[in-house]
Amino acid sequence: MADRVGRPDSATPGLPQPGFRPVAAGRAAGIRDIVARWRLRPAGAAAAGAEPDRVWYAAYGSNMCAERLACYLRGGRPAGAARTYPGCRDGRPPERAVPVTLPGQLYFALQSTVWGGGTAFYDPDRTGMVPARAYLLTTGQFSDIAAQERHRQPGADLSPATALRTGRDRLWPGRYGTLVCPGSLDHTPVLTLTASGGLADADLRAPRAAYLRTIAAGLVQAHGWDLGRIAEYLGTRPGADAQWTPTALRRALAETAGDG
Q1: Domain range annotation of the chain
Q2: Could you say which architecture CATH assigns to the domain 25-259?
């Protein structure tokens, strides 16, 4: 049983999309959506020893926002962040960007050195649905994004072979050190990064408003959600719910948007 694809990406006033080719509305129904946990076809290329040259990077946090992802690709400092990113070896924009829904749960934990407050992580073992945005990238680009998530210099390609075969691979300890493959789109593997532990082991921490605003921008761009739906979703996630209510978060997002 396939999950819904979601509505196609569309331009959002004040939030330009740098060169992304969104899926056409008439084609959305033909895309094989990400299905239930581990229900992916064993990748023939990986089984044969070949590495895919392209992958879908499923962003579920601030990288759903096109401008935020551009800092990982081309280098730069996102608005409201405390870090400048070196960028990828290949700074071209994604070939495509499509809305997807991942099986699992979003939560906020640890302390972000970029935004302050908690950081978004994904637990694929939990019941629920996580709206995300899948970007079609080269494997090298995805590898360089993974390096920057760990505050490392880009330059070495990672191998997704184990994740393609088993569904996940713990590449490094700590945050964003586990590679997850929840499925495929158009016969191309979907990959994302999360913490080495899950929600049960997490040091939950509430995120800051600036970080949530960037995630909210991505939800608007990818899924067309309104502010009320965004606040209800983000404000009730584990970690966020210790500080935020949907009403308070909606007010904070609206105030921040007005200031920016």
Answers
A1: 25-259
A2: Roll (3.10)
